[in-house]
Specification:
alpha+beta, single chain, 208 residues, 4-stranded antiparallel β-sheet, 2 domains, 3-stranded antiparallel β-sheet
């Protein structure tokens, strides 16, 4: 894409279905998103338009609103990506919500991976990288960063295809995040930010 989408196009992207990426808009808006590689037109009638992986990444890169809900819970559940202005309250109810969402995601892996494997990410996760990685971390008990910064993980989209960045100022906690993501089926590497010398993770869904 050579330039950012217009405000009207951005509203169309933000309003896409959280799970399928189905779009609603004018023919001109949808055609423009197709030209920019952010949407595609389905070949079969009724020829609906859907977000491409690049379109999903563009929407998911925005810190506000928080990450869209996972397919495992339809009641507005959103995985904690860290740094949200109005995060859900911690407590037993949240723990149960996260556990239910994670179990639902494992079931989605079983149903949609060709071999029924649950030890590696599925197509939904590759289209929702930030939410998928954040859910794996939250389900394992890692603590997300608050809105005021400080310790805790933050998961953000990156310009690289199928890769998210995970930042955590505590070195031991960052290594623990790496171990959790690897156990959840992600390929993880640890890198150093050249300017700040901060360590961070790049994580991508494992395919085999």
């Amino acid at each position: 894409m050579t330039r950012p989408p217009t405000a009207a196009q951005r509203r169309v992207i933000d309003a896409a279905d959280h799970v399928t990426g189905r779009l609603k808009g004018t023919e001109a808006q949808l055609a423009a998103l197709v030209r920019h590689g952010l949407a595609f037109r389905h070949a079969r009638p009724p020829h609906d338009h859907f977000l491409t992986p690049a379109g999903h990444r563009l929407r998911d890169a925005e810190p506000v609103p928080p990450a869209p809900e996972t397919p495992s819970a339809s009641g507005g559940f959103a995985a904690r990506i860290g740094g949200e202005e109005d995060p859900p309250a911690a407590g037993p109810a949240r723990v149960r919500e996260v556990h239910s969402a994670w179990q639902g995601l494992l079931e989605l892996r079983r149903m949609t991976n060709p071999d029924g494997a649950t030890d590696r990410p599925c197509g939904w996760e590759r289209a929702h990288l930030v939410q998928a990685a954040a859910l794996a971390l939250e389900a394992a008990g890692h603590v997300p960063a608050g809105a005021d910064g400080g310790r805790g993980y933050r998961v953000r989209a990156t310009p690289q295809p199928e890769a998210v960045a995970v930042r955590e100022p505590d070195a031991a906690a960052l290594r623990a995040c790496s171990a959790t993501l690897e156990a959840a089926g992600w390929q993880v590497g640890e890198y150093t930010e050249p300017r700040t010398r901060d360590r961070y993770l790049l994580a991508s869904p494992r395919r085999v």
